[in-house]
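task queued by scheduler; priority normal; single chain, no ligands, no partner chains; default sampling; output format set to structure tokens
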Amino acid sequence: MFFRSVVVWLFIVCVVFGFDTTKLNQSLNTKPSPVKLQNISNFFLNSPYIFSPLGEGKGIDTDTRFRIDKFDCTTFVETMLALTMSINIAQAKQNLDIIRYSGKVDFKYRRHLPALMWKPQLISFGLLEDITKNIKDFTTIIKKPNKKQLTNDMKFLSNFLETYSIDYIPLDKIEQNIPNIPNGSIVNVVRTNNNKKLMTITHQMLLFKKEGKIFFRHASSNPYKKVVDEDLKSFIKRVSKFKWKVVGINILKINYDK
């Protein structure tokens, strides 16, 4: 029943967005690699942005557990990663649950916090590796989360709110370090330590290279409101204007053999 519903859903999405289902299935049925990640994510360029499009299908968050028509920044990265590590849509759905949850599919087991849950747990799982320290000119920010910033329905996360550090490459040092940044990496956008904010990681993207230059593929809420490719210089120029300062990017290497 599930597989049939996913196939129908995929057919509808492909019709609406003009996907070539044959080419998509061909891309899925290849070995996980940065090239596959880029090829798969190509199909979803210009998909609309929507905040928190995924849930458990029941309980607190009744949104569907799997969709490929709309994304926010994290669900775009998660879904593209799940598709890349799969040979078909049914397997991608299973892999997406593994990526999004720790233990079982439940709101309280979802990896809600990028810096304190999502990143370290997927590193422990062996899917990701933080390689920022291996890149020249990295620096580190220390963050002590403010528990007062948790909403009532998220109070159960208080046990995760411990002081942590995030390594990042400063914005003005990224370009000169391009050769040391792997193609097909995951990028976390890091901001300054602000006691009024719960986290320092506020956005997630995919990083690709073309002709020795970096561009970011991401689901952008503002100003694009869709999945876009944004070159490094445009990205730096845009985020440099943010009131809450962006200090740099944290780099996660994907273990495609996981």
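post-processing summary
- The chain is about 30% helix and 20% strand.
- Residues 111 and 118 are 5 Å apart (CA to CA).
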